[in-house]
Amino acid sequence: ISAYAVAREGKLKALVLYRCPYRAGKGAGIFFERVEDEAARDLVERIVAGTTWTGQISFDLMREPDGRVLPLECNPRAVSGLHFFRDPARFAAAVLGDGPEVGPDVTVPQTVRLAMWIYGLPVALRSGGLARFRKAIREGQELLDWPGDSAPVRVQWPALAEIAGMAWRERISLQTASTRDIEWNGPG
Question: What is the extent of the structural domain holding 165?
Fold first, then answer.
């Protein structure tokens, strides 16, 4: 389970819990489904309240066999859960104003379809999960598709061409090429 939240002075202002059944290799999620999980929500609320947190905060969580939810990782930044909040006025009123906590206004799964075809389809073919993959493609909403702004979807293709060219020239995987400029793997 992953969590994305915004808090002010220890009080939740926005929260979404979600899972990523499809990833680019072992890395970034490319398909996101909302989940409801009271134990996960309680954990996020306790951490936010206990630290009087203000700002964005995100977690990767795990469930123990006894049902307890524990944090694996915490980041003070936006993550993919933000894609479940598409109404900027409602989100801003809650986060910046005195409005009540806001829940996600998007209920359908969110995906990057191009990444699903590149990474999700091969995994589905190898694992026998083609029916599940087809359902995900059918039900997932393109998270880069925003009303009045077609640029994010359109620029995927030139970006893919650039990354593929780098992968080919340097004889590295597409995934390695796609994160080369943003990852740090230690000195040297």
Answer: 145-182
CATH code for the domain in which residue 12 is found: 3.30.470.20
Share of the chain above pLDDT 90, in %: 66
Distance CA 185, CA 99 (A): 42
Answer yes or no: are the C-beta atoms of 63 and 71 closer than 8 Å. Answer: no
Q: Is the pLDDT confidence value at 188 over 70?
A: no
pLDDT band at 18, cuts 50/70/90? very high
Q: Is residue 150 domain-shared with residue 106, that is, in the same domain?
A: no
Q: Is residue 131 part of a domain?
A: no
Map the chain to HEC letters: CEEEEEEECCEEEEEEEEEEEEECCCCCEEEEEECCCHHHHHHHHHHHHHCCCCEEEEEEEEECCCCCEEEEEEECCCCHHHHHCCCHHHHHHHHHCCCCCECCCCCCCEECHHHHHHHHHHHHHHHCCHHHHHHHHHHCEECCCECCECHHHHCHHHHHHHHHHHHHHHCCCHHHHHHCCCCCCCCC
**Per-residue model confidence as pLDDT tens digits over 81-116:** 999 999 988 899 888 888 889 999 999 999 999 999
